[in-house]
Design goal:
Layout lengths: L3 E5 L4 E2 L10 H4 L8 E6 L6 H9 L9 E6 L7 H11 L7 E3 L8 H13 L4 E5 L13 E5 L4
Parallel strand pairs: 4-5
Antiparallel strand pairs: 1-2, 1-3, 3-4, 6-7
Length: 152
């Protein structure tokens, strides 16, 4: 996803660098007021970062093009697997522009390479690997590894 990291603090959408992301009230009004969320604001496959930023910064932007793709619940103190279960349970109450990022358990190197190849074929950049049974950590962490192919 080539958009912008969006952290929901129960009141505001905040960027990775701690800046307020000015989003329309309809976009955040149905988000939980008691659970923080971590995800990506994204316009979908094939959208460049430049196009996304143009929509985001425009005063007349149509935020209907932007989705909020969730991948974690920082306010949950459980393990990664417990947080994913809680996130899955939220799916029924989330508005339609909020989606969950698919979690696929890796079964080994062959599976990793096959899945990475499918993401690259679909014009994706790479995949994120997360160490099982870890707690949520703010910032860079050894429990998450970004895997991508460098084109030469």
């Amino acid at each position: 996803m080539d958009g912008m990291r969006g952290f929901w603090d129960c009141h505001n959408m905040i960027s990775r660098h701690g800046n307020l992301i000015p989003s329309p009230s309809w976009f955040t009004s149905e988000l939980p007021m008691d659970i923080t969320l971590d995800g990506e604001l994204w316009m979908g496959p094939g959208t460049t970062h430049e196009k996304f930023m143009k929509v985001l910064k425009s005063k007349t932007a149509d935020w209907g093009q932007i989705g909020y793709y969730l991948f974690d619940i920082p306010s949950c103190t459980g393990t990664y697997e417990e947080r994913m279960e809680k996130l899955e349970n939220l799916k029924e109450i989330l508005p339609s522009h909020v989606r969950l990022v698919a979690n696929i358990q890796c079964t080994g190197n062959a599976h990793l390479n096959e899945y990475l190849d499918s993401i690259i074929a679909a014009k994706g950049e790479g995949i994120m690997l997360r160490k099982p049974n870890t707690i949520y950590e703010v910032g860079y962490t050894a429990s998450i590894l970004k895997v991508k192919v460098i084109q030469q």
